Amino acid sequence: MAKHQHARRDDILPVILGGDIGVYGIGRSFHEAFGVRSIAVASAPTEAITRSVAFTTEHLPPHADDSVVLGVLRRIASQHRDRHLVLMANHDLHSAFVARHAAELSQWYALPFPDLDIVDHVTDKAAFQEVCDSLGVPTPATVLVDMATCTDPTWVAPEIPFDYPVVAKAARGDAYDAVDFPGKRKIWFIESRGELDQLWSTLAAAGFRGTFLVQELVPGDNTQMRSITAYVDSTGTVGLIGSARVLLEDHAPTMIGNPVAMITEPFAQLWADATRILEHTGYRGFANFDVKVDPRDGRALFFEVNPRIGRNNWYMSAAGANPMEPMVADLVDHAPSAPRQLRAEVLYSLVPDRLLLHYLRDGALRARVQGLISAGKRKDPLEYPAEKDLRRRVVVALQKVNQYRKFRRFYPEATDRSF
Fold this sequence. Notes:
By secondary structure, the protein is an alpha/beta fold. It has a domain at 141-216: Dna Ligase, domain 1, CATH 3.30.1490. The protein is built from 15 helices and 17 strands. The chain has helices spanning 21-34, 47-50, 66-79, 92-100, 102-105, 116-123, 125-135, 173-177, 193-206, 268-281, 314-318, 324-331, 353-359, 363-374, 390-410, and strands at residues 12-17, 38-42, 55-59, 84-89, 109-110, 142-146, 166-170, 188-190, 211-216, 225-232, 238-249, 259-264, 285-293, 300-306, 340-341, 347-349, 378-379. The strands form 3 sheets. Strands 10, 11, 12, 13, 14, 15, 16 and 17 form an 8-stranded mixed β-sheet that branches. Helix 2 links the parallel strand 2 (38-42) and strand 3 (55-59). The longest helix has 21 residues, at 390-410. The chain starts with 11 loop residues before the first strand and ends in a 9-residue tail after the last helix.
């Protein structure tokens, strides 16, 4: 189970870029492990953060550029010279920002992130595909579409050698996050060649000049997805690894693919493959892998690795393996702890139980979830007993109830497709 405050560390100050639920999960883990309040540096943090016992906030103007963010982080560092500062983030744009400015930021902050070379080499989905191929780690069949010269009249998208429907997504989240256009989706489900051609036109008009991936659609619903979270310490050792079986994902267009319910569970072969990737590339810091098990042959296909702890990071703490503990031992105390694997089973869920059970079509899995609920092993990161603010509790409760409306609009019934 999640641990509550057990070793207060007033010498530590976590500073977290962003203001969403992923940031809240990080701050909650710090609060549970060390009894400290984190600073959320964000333009519009959620009320779950602004009214939280685990946070103070530092305002950023919307769409702040690197110089503005650096200025805020410098000021925070100058105001807290007596504390060990740890910089965290949970968004591709923020992770890329940290990598670009690591030399300066590392003067003041512990940085549990890979360096810029690793970000470019591993977290770019196209480069990740090459790494996996070299190690014999299975991945979906993929075609890379380089849009650097897409406005040239002679530019032609490559042929897709597998059947429609297909999945399309940006090779790098930070490059895609930098453009905006009506109807934008995190991941595109494409039914035909005509739809794919229209996507290329839309991206070109929006100014996207990065690389897109077109992948075969691996069958199976959300329950075929797996999440792996790891921390690689400064010696290159995978000091913590854990995983979860996804039960349900968000289906809103800009959030699609983000799990909203999972069961923590060990997957030995997935851990071994993830460890090989991390060690082969010289990775350091937190990493989060997306994997899907192909129901046709049982192969676990690695989709990507994110250079951050992951939006649903608190599932690790919920099952008793708080990831902030080995990171602080490593980067603040300079005494890496013994490697640890997450083996406890809990239900991590952001949605009402009745809504979740509606989407579980596998009888055995449904019974397993009901058993965890009955045993009191359902954990919601936003429902932290230390939180006493009444308005915050009301907001969190209303957000949870709103999931019914959201799923009714974007995913009324379970299908055999997931991303």
